[in-house]
Amino acid sequence: MASMRTHMRPLHTSLALFGLSHGSNSSLVEPAKAFDAKANSKPPHLLSKVKKVYCLFVCCVLSLNVLRYIPSFWVGIDFVPHPTALRIVVLVWFIENAVSSIVLFVFFENKNHFERYVQQYITVISDDISKYLKTNPACQKAKRSMIRALVVGWIIVIFNAVTVGFLLFSNLTPDVTVTLCNPLSHKSIPVKIFISVLFLLLSGVWVFPVVLHYSLTTAIEIRFQELHEVIENTALEDCPNRFETLKCVRYKHLQLCKMVETVDQSLSYYVANVYLLSIGTACFLIYDLISKVSGDPNITEMIVLLFWLACSFIMPFIISIKSAKVHEKAHGLSSLIMDVNLDGATMQDLAHINLLVAKLHGPSIGLSVLGIITITKEMILTLAGVFMTYLFLLIQFKI
Fold first, then answer.
1. pLDDT at 63
2. What are the angstrom distances between the C-alpha of 349 and each of 141, 229, 360?
3. Second label for 366, Cα 20 to 30 Å away, from 10, 49, 259, 291?
4. Would you say the pTM of this structure is higher than 0.70?
């Protein structure tokens, strides 16, 4: 238990630095016990209060930043009318990050799904069923994946914040500088410092929820893969213990499905926010890039816009790929189960096998968008088709 929480600590700390994580006052993971009543009546620790206030502060700052920016479409100290598409990109990005911070605040404040996920994961890797199936209780592979994702996340955050700060103080891209500072003056040093610090905060809020999603889904994917390996290493035709193994696999599969439900309940609103607003950002960035290419483009500005466009594609793509893999692994046992030899099976054995097959061929197991659409490989292909259609229409009409 301690090992799992230790492995998750770097991610939890990174989220907390940007106001995306704090300890909840009440836990929904385990019921309260009588002998804990006195302890539970104590006020929360000072550090937890500070974290909560900081998270609220971040939510308020990002929400007020959206309201600050809206008038820049019409007024400003040094108002420039023409970069409307770029203003829309910036506003949509501000809204996306504000919504992400609010969603994750509610996620940690009211639901406490993060703690529930940790408890479920500990059960999955350490209970008697895992010992019977001889699955690997260590979580080193999940830890390595999380560390790699964290390193890449920090690189993107630092690069984006440093790039924006450099552009603000160098004036290499006048349109970007004016657009980011509006409706305030882009010539004011305090304004440039404020925008630079704000973009550091926004970059963290933009990137680290994706790292959280990646880490949680990777751990689930690894555990589903272990069940695949258990089935593949079991002689389903003549192994005398094949029915007991399949019963344990069914129980373990149900535990993992509950973990998928926990992550889906926690992050389905965040995923919907990313799909809606990241795709909107990417569409307007493509529009702005094509319009600039047809004129006299600023090379530095083009590079920055291309970086933002790549990130706007990559982040929904990572979420889609990891979610689709979870869906694929969750249903992937069905082809292996069909090879089992049912000779000598009792009615109870047949019942367990039928329940497992019904689960595998029943409603989709996976992460969803607002609980409406389960993310699968087919959905990724559909989104790619929509993007390509939009791109070719812009090129065709030379907008």
1. 93
2. 34, 21, 17
3. 10
4. yes
